[in-house]
TrEMBL record:
Gene3D superfamilies: Helical domain of apoptotic protease-activating factors, P-loop containing nucleotide triphosphate hydrolases, Ribonuclease Inhibitor, Toll/interleukin-1 receptor homology (TIR) domain, Winged helix-like DNA-binding domain superfamily/Winged helix DNA-binding domain. It holds the Pfam family WHD_DRP. This is Disease resistance RPP13-like protein 1 isoform X1. It comes from the Eukaryota. Residues 12-181 form the TIR domain. One of its GO terms (biological process) is signal transduction. Keywords: NAD, Plant defense, Repeat. GO terms for molecular function: ADP binding; ATP binding.
């Protein structure tokens, strides 16, 4: 006896009893049908070859028939030759009369009329039965009568398997069985759903180790991306079930999946099979792909919180006094002001402290006294002269000193008073500096070994004297040397080790083989800092790849995003908000975020940190401009999407080709100040049943498309400063919506 695994149903132990003549269909059609029923989560009984001998079968089969809700009769040319099958048939029809058991006949390469009239192979079989059972003709007549009754139950057209399309017939059978069972598939306590969720979790313990080993092992990197995608796909599947349940509730439909259950069950089986393959691979594949991966379940304590300030804390800057004075001299000297505006470039590699030096100068007392107005503008990699000029002119109109942090740009500004306008530019590109400069370029070198150690120690031993930890003194110097004079690396690693005082932990970090590995332009120190984060912090940080480079964000904004995506699991909103604030402070204290030098309540990510977030998030987060020259595209794996749209170009069908593959989005946000085409939005949102977060702030929308009301999983809808928005669709069906922001719209309300 064989059966698929599932829970018992009220009143019966099996969903289906599968009756067939073993010799001619056992190893082909019936076996495929049994497998398909299993895959659909239908508990099915069938008898095995071994149990056809002896009296045991006569005891088990009648009981199995009685305990099944549905019996499937697979009639083939050889069916009637088996007296055992004919006895089964008689028992099945008795149950049909007594208990209302559902009987589904399947005619495999035989017409119902051959069975009804007992012609062809059936006639030959009954000639033999009548010869054998001369003294028991009543038994033979019962078999004949049973066959006539079963043939009159004709369910499937015998021509449905013409041309060998057995798969189509099997699909129809599974659909009919599922429909008849009226499966309560949406319940979370269904064993198959539980199993899928368990499998999704079971591979999670390998992720930390895999994220480290994938740096040097291509096979592990491919496994990691495949596993994450499989978990996302499984989560999308569970999402679709919940979405359908909510849709039916909204539309007051019966809580069943009649006619749709097979689709879900078959997909569930496919997903389970994929995850099993990834998490429980064969021994050969395990040895070749997952060699040495270990489950890491230990947790790391949160970092202590630190206060923030709108100004640079000069006490936290080491080894830059000489550079600061040299820049101040260039900005304030009469020689530098011969051209208007004057341009002073600071050039250095990423992480060397160019922005920090610019902040020191920008906030210096002598600059405050020497210039009437100041502005700080970031130049993104997606460069536009018109866009940047507009940003600058929005800050002020004349008499300006401008701090430009980015890659390249000399704005066409001719409005400052002669000898009074200066531009300070930070860039990694020497050629950019040579084109822009009006005074010699200031090349920023790495910190000296002592200065780098002082910076590292300040963050690693915050509030404590490093000499109080004698056991760490040699190790901390060695780690500081590994930072290669880069302040960003020293600060980040110092923040990482702040809560660790165990010598073994410091030695493990010092001896990591990642120090000598430089791939994808990711600083080893930053990569190590990420790998040592707790899993939930890794997830929250990687998600930040959704922001464009140089994007200024607020803590509340990021926490709302994390909440909507389910990264912060708590029962009520205020608990989630507190958990989100703790995650934010943890990442801030480790320098994954930095406070904006312009707005005290805003934060930014260093370019190298953004590169790291983009690297670890893979294809799942996508932030892109829809400019004409941008060739990057979202993929099927993209779940979180942020668009920056040209002010002039807006959305166009050509540009939207970048995102057409992203059909499973959970986050959709656009950069402000841009035109949003309502028809485009309608087309996009109509397919996004997984969407949790939709931000269209500062767009020119007049009407929010009706399709938004069908986004039943939506938790956050932000329409801030959509000045022209004068109507909304009925949002009453959005049962999960917890945050609706209409600030600055004609509705003048925030919910």
């Amino acid at each position: 006896m064989a059966s698929s695994s599932s829970s018992s149903r009220p009143g019966w132990d099996y969903d289906v009893f599968l009756s067939f003549r073993g010799e001619d269909t056992r190893k082909n059609f019936t076996d495929y049908l049994f497998t398909a029923l299993q895959k659909a989560g239908i508990r099915t009984f069938r008898d095995d070859d071994e149990l056809r001998i002896g009296e045991e079968i006569s005891l088990q089969l009648p009981k199995a028939i009685q305990e099944s809700k549905i019996s499937i009769l697979v009639f083939s040319k050889g069916y009637a030759s088996s007296t055992w099958c004919l006895d089964e048939l008689e028992k099945i029809l008795d149950c049909r009369h007594a208990t209302g058991q559902i009987v589904i006949p399947v005619f495999y390469d035989i017409a119902p009329s051959d069975i009804r009239k007992q012609t062809g192979s059936f006639a030959e079989a009954f000639d033999k039965h009548e010869e054998r059972f001369k003294e028991e003709m009543e038994k033979v007549q019962k078999w004949r009568k049973a066959l006539v009754e079963a043939a009159n139950l004709s369910w499937l057209d015998p021509h449905s398997i013409a041309n060998g399309h057995e798969s189509k017939l099997i699909q129809k059978i599974v659909e009919e069985v599922s429909s008849q069972l009226n499966t309560r598939f949406l319940s979370d306590d269904r064993p198959l759903i539980k199993r899928l969720k368990t499998t999704m979790i079971s591979g999670g313990g390998l992720l930390d180790d895999a994220e480290e080993k994938q740096i040097t092992n291509t096979a592990v990197r491919e496994w990691l991306a495949e596993y994450k995608d499989a978990v996302y796909e499984a989560d999308d599947f569970l999402d679709e079930i919940a979405y359908e349940a909510l849709r039916q509730e909204v539309e007051a439909e019966a809580q069943t999946f009649r006619g749709q259950t097979p689709k879900w069950l078959i997909k569930l089986g496919d997903l389970q099979e994929r995850l099993d393959y990834l998490v429980k691979p064969s021994e050969v594949r395990r040895r070749s792909v997952l060699t040495g991966l270990i489950n890491r379940t230990g947790k790391e304590p949160s970092s202590p919180k630190r206060p923030t300030t709108s100004l640079v804390d000069e006490r936290g800057v080491y080894g830059r006094d000489y550079d600061r004075e040299a820049i101040l001299k260039l900005l304030l000297s009469d020689d530098a002001n011969e051209e208007n505006p004057g341009v002073v470039p600071i050039v250095g590699m990423g992480g060397v402290g160019k922005t920090t030096l610019a902040q020191l100068v920008y906030n210096h007392r002598r600059v405050q006294e020497g210039f009437d107005l100041k502005a700080w503008v970031c130049v993104s990699e997606d460069f536009s002269v018109l866009k940047l000029t507009k940003m600058i002119l929005e800050e002020m109109t004349f008499g300006m000193k401008i701090m430009l942090s980015g890659t390249s740009y000399l704005p066409p500004l001719k409005y400052g008073a002669q000898g009074m306008s200066m531009i300070l530019v930070t860039t990694r590109n020497e050629s950019v500096a040579s084109v822009m400069r009006t005074v010699p370029t200031r090349h920023l070198k790495e910190l000296t070994e002592d200065s780098c150690w002082s910076l590292f120690a300040k963050h690693a031993f915050r509030g404590e004297n490093p000499s109080a930890h004698e056991e760490l003194q040699e190790i901390d110097r060695a780690i500081a040397r590994k930072c290669k004079g880069l302040p960003l690396a020293a600060v980040t690693l110092g923040g990482l080790l702040r809560t660790k005082r165990n010598v073994e932990e410091w030695e493990k970090l010092l001896e990591s083989n990642l120090w000598d590995l430089r791939k994808d332009n990711i600083l080893p120190a930053l990569r190590l800092s990420y790998l040592y984060l707790q899993p939930h912090l890794k997830q929250c940080f990687a998600y930040c790849a959704i922001f464009p480079k140089d994007y200024k964000f607020k803590m509340d904004e990021l926490v709302l995003l994390w909440m909507a995506e389910g990264f912060l699991v708590h029962s009520v909103d205020d608990e989630m908000e507190r958990a989100g604030a703790e995650c934010f402070d943890d990442l801030l204290s480790r320098s994954f975020f930095q406070q904006s030098s312009v707005y005290s309540s805003s934060f930014v990510m260093h370019d190298l940190m953004h590169d790291l977030a983009t690297h670890v998030s893979g294809q799942f987060c996508f932030s892109s401009s829809l400019g004409e020259n941008n060739s990057s595209k979202a993929t099927r794996r993209t779940r979180h999407l942020s668009l920056v749209v040209d002010t002039i170009g807006g959305f166009s069908s050509t540009k939207l080709e970048n995102i057409r593959e992203a059909q499973h989005l959970r986050t959709f946000r656009t950069s402000p100040h841009h035109r949003i085409d309502a028809s485009m939005l309608s087309c996009s949102t109509s397919k996004l049943k997984h969407l949790r977060y939709l931000d269209l702030s500062e767009s020119d929308l007049v009407t929010l498309p009706e399709e938004v009301s069908a986004l039943l999983n939506l938790q956050t809808l932000i329409l801030k400063y959509c000045r022209q928005l004068d109507s909304l669709p009925d949002l009453g069906n959005l049962k999960h919506l917890r945050h609706l922001n209409l600030e600055g719209t004609k509705n003048r309300k925030v919910a």
